[in-house]
Protein 1
Amino acid sequence: MSELKEELKGKIIEQLNLEDVSVADIADDDALFGDGLGLDSIDALELIVMLDKDYGIRLSDPKEGKKIFESVQVMADYIQEHRTK
Amino acid sequence: MKKVYINSIASISPQKTYDNSRFLDEIINYNDTVIFAQDPDYKQYIPPAAARRMAKGIKMGVVASKIAMDEAGIETVDAIITGTGMGCMIDSEKFVSAIIDNNEQYLTPTSFIQSTHNTVAGQIALGMECKAYNFTYVHSAISVESALLDAKMQLENDEAEHILVGGVEELGEHTTKVHRAINHIKPEAVTISGVLDSKTEGAVFSEGANFFVVSNEKTKSCYAELVAVETFNTLQKEKVSEAIENFLKENNLKIDDIDLVVFGNNGDVDFDGYYNKLSEGIFSKTQQVFYKHLVGENNTVSAFGVWLASKILKTQAVPEIVKLNEINTSEFKTVLCYNQYRGQNHSLVLLRKC
């Protein structure tokens, strides 16, 4: 699980071009949207594609993303449970 | 009709031209076939949250526009008009590559959103919250001249007071490979002093952003009056002199009235003849300058020629590095810029001291 969380942090930084942010800067429970990392709706779309491409998880309802992308911890839990690859 | 003035300028190019207090006093000597723009401190101008989605061309355009706006001393404009021959190549390549690599699956939105030709003008407008006329001309080597012409007509007719005009090109890896394969890029590296002596076809490719605030009121920062702009999609080499004489006649000028001519020679053995014919012909007694040995070739680099002409008119000084002949004029009042790319898309931009 710990490895998955580090992997997710790296992917978020790389795919969303979070310049000046390192893996160590993101705590497992930090909010990804709003006051936390400050991600926005375009980032949410990028994350939905990442879940599908890298973990084989297809979100049928984009509204689900709001809960799943709450933090790296929540994302990792969800991926652990639903991943197909 | 109102007169039109270039009240501020900004250039990001393969030379350190982003500081308007300097004028080609430190030259970077390249020995290459492709040269990249010198980066200003983008973070000084663009918030990190906005910058993270911007490829280099967008950053260059946004920063050049901010430099131009700062120098003009205005916060918004009545129109934003840009020109680009190739648009946002880096994001276009990224998006198309993703389609191919992922078998048309897993397409992400960011590179698609940022890949349109109007992205730069759009991002500038978003940054300054400008909801006015926003337009991008995509017309090969006369893209930025088309933008200037549009701005000029709006200002002359008093439909606008201040317009931000600029040209942007960025180098994309794949597109550069394609240009190399079709011999539009020189096969051998050339130094800036060796560009015109090159005996090969093609040019040294480059990128950059050049922006201007043009207004129908002259301000303290004024560089030049934009007198006339004309473009020609096709023009035979034998007809260029005649076209220039007609253009000058329409503006009540003769060849002798031109104090300086800015040529767009790029060292392409197949097409520099257009300039050489003028240089040895109608402009043989006129002081001549050139600039593509310093900043390379791209679809909107002719805007650098306008930048150079504006600088010369304001400072009344010509850096040695751009001199093409031995003639030295004591005062620069009227300057003509002539450019063409691969024998097509010719442009004439006439500037006058303000």
Protein 2
Amino acid sequence: MRPTLLANPSPAMVGRIKALVFVLCLLPLAASLWQAFSGQAVNPVETLTRDSGSWALNLLLAGLAITPLRRLGAPGWLLRLRRMLGLYAFFYASVHLLIYLWLDQLFDWPAILHDIIKRPFITVGMAAFALLLPLAITSTDGWLRRLKRRWGQLHRLVYPLAVLAVVHYLWLVKRNLTEPLLYAAVLALLLGLRLWWRLRPTMGPRVQ
Amino acid sequence: MLIRRATDILPSEITPHSVYLNRRQFMLGSAGLLLPVASIAALPASKSGYSTTEKPNSRQDITSYNNYYEFGTGKDEPAQYAARLKTRPWSVAVGGEAGKPRSFSIEELLKFPLEERIYRLRCVEGWSMVIPWVGFPLASLLKQVDPTSRAKYVAFETALRPGEMPGVARRVLDWPYREGLRIDEAMHPLTILAVGLYGEALPGQNGAPVRLVVPWKYGFKSIKSISRITLLEKQPPTSWNMAAPSEYGFYSNVNPAVDHPRWSQASERRIGEFLKRKTLPFNGYADQVAGLYRGMDLVKNF
């Protein structure tokens, strides 16, 4: 592909890119299901839980990377992928939550409530999901129109919820913190860049 | 007797032509299979009344889903790297508060009368398996060194071989791995030193060549690849307790009523089953071991 096409693709091309990203985002689920049910995974439920959680985080961070990337000169059409990435993060988070509610807790609601209150990593995980839910619901064009300026304000919830999601991972790990700390570092960079640009508005190229 | 009728079976029906053409490769492959014969030789073991009648997990499950941080913190890493550990020659130094301290070579350990012990194993992480170990009571070994009256505890140490253990380059735990038992726990007939699995020598990822198995305690108490056993008057420091004292106690008996500070211990996922099952006090061995802790506060002494 020539760079000019990537910098300024036709609407049809953007549609094709979106279709491609849509399919790519389903591959981790397919790979995880394959691993879990082909007999490769010794503990399939753990595999599904871990993979769905990781991909919820990956896609959340990918969505959060788009604004900084644009400011650093990436082409504008990237913005057209952001909603899909966010919705996929919600999708993987929902799978993650459903596995917990069903396969871990067998929908035993008193036990689930007890867990939410007593276990800090469950508390922050649930809080992250609770903040993500209204963002997924109001992701449609209709809600964007109805909420006007409020929509942008509401969707800033993504920043605290991303922090909660990383803390959720950090607090559940038994000993080796390498991976959750890596997520924390990437999130700190993505949020730090925003803060930097906000505090020093004259610095860096402006985005319309 | 002379058989006149020619055979109506063609040689190619017995040996497929492709195999015949690849006969040299076949021979090479077979030779490769013969080499490690010493290490996979069957271990003669008698049955034991202490075995559970539950169905053991497959050898594949038991040997590919392991916690052995000396070879990495991933569940699949021990299976990848543990073969690097040289288990011959091997010896276990047994000393401390002992009248006759001495060292046991692995060959000597293999001469103890071996039993098959099919035990439940409950990991502190919330999963469990049923494992057919081959081993002998730890008590049989300890009696040979004549523990003194001051021997109140037993400390165990895993071999530390940075050249063969890729995981110890990172200080995930304070190496070498250390564990400990009270003397009455160590002398209990359920407590064994395992040298085999499924009737064969112990694979590296399961703690070759010799490991402890204490079936009523969380799995991390059952220390692998033991190089030293020391009888002590005082309670020894243990690795997970040193790393996170509020999360992993010295006793670490399986107890559904005492949660890990960060997760519940009320239930477990038996590997091979989809839904969780209830965790039993002392991992189902309460009848045999609850007496060891009579009068103790097991919430405080977790």
Protein 3
Amino acid sequence: MPGDVKVLRRPEEKGSYVRAALKGMSVTFRHMVNPRKVTQQYPDEKWELAPRMRGTHRMATHEDGRAKCVACGLCPTVCPVNCIKLIPAEDENGERYAAVYEIDEFRCIFCGFCQEVCPVEAIHLGVHYENAEYSRERWVYDLERLCDQDQPFTALWDPADPASE
Amino acid sequence: METLTGAHFVWMTIFKVVLFFTLLMLMVGGVVMFERKVAGFIQDRSGPNRVGPWGLLQTMADGIKFLLKEETYPDAAQAVFYLLAPVMAMVPATILFAVIPFASPLPTGWGLVHMIVADVPVGFLYVLAIGSFGVYGVVMAGWSSGSKYAFLGGMRGSAQMISYEVGLALTLVPIVLLGGGVRIPDLISLQQGFTGQGPATLGMWLFLPLGVSFLLFFITGLAETKRIPFDLPEAEAELIAGYHTEYSAMKFGMFFLGEYAHMLTTAALITVFFLGGWDIPFWHGDNIRVLADGTVIGDPTWWKTVLTFLSFTIKTSLLVTVFVWIRWTLPRFRYDQLMELGWKFVIVAATAYVFVVAGSVLVLDRLGVHFGLPYAAILTGVNVVLLGLLLFVVDRGRLARGAAYTVTRGLGRASRRSGTGPAAAGRS
């Protein structure tokens, strides 16, 4: 509809190219000589990450190094993108453990549902994002690798404001 | 001191070719680095700073990458022209440097060495002739790639460069009117101011007595280098990379080198024509000239060669800085604006200006004004008035008007008058 097109009623006689160009040049010149730069020298200096930042997963372990996971199956159920593969097993005491526990970090959307749903606080998201790999297979983290992660656990709530007020 | 002759001349020329080509390529590398740094600064970034100290080796890394990347050959390409195009893009830009004097003549044991590869009598006619060759690289690349985008880029490139070629040549005519010749060392002498020896000279850099020419030459020179705001042949947003879309690795690298070499050449030409070449301002010790018949006037020494070379380099670098600064400030012209600026402004103004300068020269000669500083001062006055008028004409929306205004007005009117179009049809 023609009425919806925004028509700029600017008379041509009042437009200017030379003055506008010079004005632009002065703006860029001011920025050129301004020593304050916004670039962050990434590998040398990094962002300070928020405690609730959701990144690469980390599996919590007992003191003896066993994963805390009890293979209840809640996290693969709740996962919206099906990136968790869990095959449960029972040991001689009748306790369930995860025989296979894999998370495809490539597929994961880092929603954090698995951490929220976990009844034993085993699987966590971590405050960590530098997980580049040379192949897609390497993005599938198995249980051992999840236990070996050492980044801090993602906080589910702000300790200063637990009720989110 | 006599100028070089015979075998000495041949060997020295070969040495100068190698030296100046190496120098040019090094300077191109420097300019690429410089441009990226300045681009960063203008955008509040710090620019490349990872390779080498302060990022200075970034260009080397780029060069190595150009050499190691895969060479691709499109199926639809016309092999001969496809391979020839990068050469045609780079060669004219580099051989233009042959006629540019870098410094005052250098006295050596064998004779006086000109700091210019080829002191050709046709002078800047050579510049115009070789400069026109630049368009072949663009057209051949665009046409032979067998790609629609490259073809469009080539078309635009040829139209743009041929249009501005005319203006470029016309802006140089007033220099001939004042200098009475086309030999480039003579043009530098013209701006230096000699008294009593050889033909009379003005003694003032030509950007003052020929201010309008300077402005127009700057604009057309910028258009010839195909840089923003005249980079329609490339136009990343519309044409991917324009005429060199289908080129990879070192073949693209040659276009790249050619573009920057062309920028340096244009800056050097502006320096020579309008900023006194290697002349050091306010100092008469560097007034050295070698006439076309070999007569040497002045007192050449090696340290004067060094100083004048520095002077030339500083002037050229300042112009390159302005080019880079413009590139990272101004938006690209629309195609119609480009053509309007070229045909309706530059060519018209340059033609009219030739007549104005010719008239002024005639009047000043009749009045018997001394050909020297007074002559130049009067011409400067005339040019200041003309520049004011010219800028007034360009400004105020008479040329290069705002895009938003015209486009939306046209759209609104057309659909209102006819009452058709997709929106109107949907309503009924």
